C-alpha cells in the first residue's frame, strides 16, 4: 500500500544519551515519510477520510443502534482509532522497516551506539504520534458538528490507544520479518488488516456474533482497544450502559490487562524474531 524508497538512508544518530539518539532517528524517519506522497496519505489522510465517508453515509447510525456504546460520535472515534492503528502504524511501519532492512540501514545502525530498542522505538514514534494526533483533531471536529462525546475518562482511552499503538507496531515488526520486499508488504499486511476489522466488533457488533466468537474476540489485541475508547470517551460500555468515573476504571481493568499482556508477549517475539539484515 505504501512505498518508501529503499535507498533512503537516515543519518547516523549523534552520540550521546538515549533521548538524543531517539530524537535523531525519529527526525530522520519524519523526513523520509514527508518525501513520500503515498506514505503521507496513508499515515495522515486515509483514516480520517474513511471515517468521514462512513459518518456521512448513515451506516454508522445503524451500527450504533445495534451496539450503542457511547453513541454514533464515539463509534466514529473508535473506527478512527482502528483505522489509525491499522494504516498509520501497522501498514506504514511494516513497509518502512522492510525498506530500511533491505537497504542495510538497520544493520548499520546496529553496529553503532544505538541500542536495538532505541532503533525500533524511533521507527515507530512518528507513526504513533500521527495516529494519536489524528484522534485528537477528529474528536474535536466531530464534537463541533455532532453530539459531543462524554469524555468521562480520557485517560482510559489514551492508555488503550498507547497500548494499541505499541501492539500494532510490534505486529508490524513481526510482519516485516516475514516480508521479503517493500512491494510484497502490500500482501503480507492484508490478512491482519482485514482481521482487525472483523475482530474490532465495529462493523459486526458483538451482540450479532455467537457467544463463543465474542469471547475469543475479547482476548484478541483489537477489541479491547475499542472497549477502552468506548469506556473512556463515550462514558459507557459497548452494550450502552452508562458509567461513572469510578466505574470506568473497573470496566477498563480487563481490556487493559489483555492489551498489556499482548504488548509483553509480542515484545518478546520481536526480540527473538526481528530481522536486521536482508532476507535470503
From TrEMBL:
The chain crosses the membrane at residues 37-55, 75-98, 119-143, 155-175, 187-209, 252-271. Keywords: Membrane, Transmembrane, Transmembrane helix. Signal peptide: none annotated. The keyword Transmembrane applies. It is a multi-pass membrane protein. The keyword Cytoplasm does not apply. Residues 70-270 form the ABC-2 type transporter transmembrane domain. It is found in: Membrane. Pfam families: ABC2_membrane_3. This is ABC transporter permease. It comes from Georgenia faecalis. The lineage of its organism: Bacteria, Bacillati, Actinomycetota, Actinomycetes, Micrococcales.
Amino acid at each position: 500500500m505504501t512505498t518508501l524508497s529503499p535507498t533512503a538512508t537516515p543519518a547516523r544518530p549523534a552520540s550521546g544519551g538515549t533521548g538524543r539518539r531517539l530524537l535523531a532517528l525519529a527526525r530522520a524517519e519524519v523526513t523520509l515519510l514527508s518525501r513520500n506522497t503515498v506514505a503521507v496519505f496513508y499515515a495522515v489522510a486515509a483514516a480520517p477520510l474513511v471515517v468521514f465517508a462512513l459518518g456521512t453515509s448513515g451506516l454508522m447510525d445503524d451500527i450504533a443502534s445495534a451496539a450503542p456504546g457511547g453513541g454514533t460520535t464515539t463509534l466514529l472515534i473508535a473506527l478512527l482509532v482502528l483505522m489509525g492503528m491499522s494504516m498509520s502504524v501497522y501498514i506504514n511501519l511494516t513497509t518502512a522497516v522492510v525498506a530500511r532492512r533491505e537497504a542495510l540501514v538497520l544493520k548499520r545502525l546496529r553496529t553503532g551506539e544505538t541500542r536495538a530498542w532505541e532503533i525500533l522505538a524511533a521507527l515507530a514514534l512518528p507513526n504513533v504520534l500521527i495516529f494519536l494526533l489524528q484522534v485528537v483533531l477528529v474528536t474535536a471536529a466531530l464534537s463541533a458538528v455532532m453530539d459531543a462525546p462524554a469524555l468521562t475518562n480520557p485517560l482510559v482511552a489514551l492508555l488503550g490507544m498507547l497500548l494499541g499503538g505499541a501492539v500494532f507496531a510490534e505486529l508490524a515488526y513481526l510482519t516485516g520479518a516475514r516480508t521479503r520486499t517493500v512491494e510484497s508488504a502490500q500482501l503480507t499486511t492484508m490478512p491482519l488488516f482485514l482481521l482487525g476489522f472483523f475482530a474490532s466488533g465495529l462493523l459486526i457488533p458483538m451482540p450479532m456474533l455467537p457467544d463463543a466468537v465474542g469471547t475469543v474476540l475479547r482476548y484478541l489485541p483489537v477489541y479491547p482497544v475499542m472497549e477502552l475508547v468506548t469506556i473512556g470517551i463515550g462514558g459507557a460500555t459497548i452494550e450502552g450502559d452508562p458509567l461513572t468515573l469510578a466505574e470506568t476504571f473497573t470496566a477498563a481493568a480487563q481490556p487493559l490487562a489483555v492489551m498489556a499482556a499482548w504488548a509483553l508477549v509480542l515484545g518478546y517475539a520481536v526480540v527473538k524474531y526481528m530481522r536486521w539484515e536482508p532476507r535470503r
